[in-house]
Design brief:
With about 45 residues, this protein is an alpha+beta fold. It is about 25% helix and about 35% strand. The chain starts with a strand and ends with a helix.
Length: about 45
């Protein structure tokens, strides 16, 4: 099974899933990220 990355649109055999919440705490969307984009996303959380 392959996945399509939400950000870079590349296909990946494995993926990471994240849930994005709006400011009021409700679920806004579900994203599937490839390993590279997931690493970038984690770094963005660190600031």
């Amino acid at each position: 099974m392959s996945y399509c990355c939400y950000y870079c649109d590349k296909e990946a055999r494995s993926a990471h899933s994240i849930t994005v919440y709006s400011n009021n705490g409700t679920e806004e969307r579900f994203e599937v990220l490839c390993g590279s984009c997931y690493a970038d996303w984690l770094l963005s959380l660190k600031g």
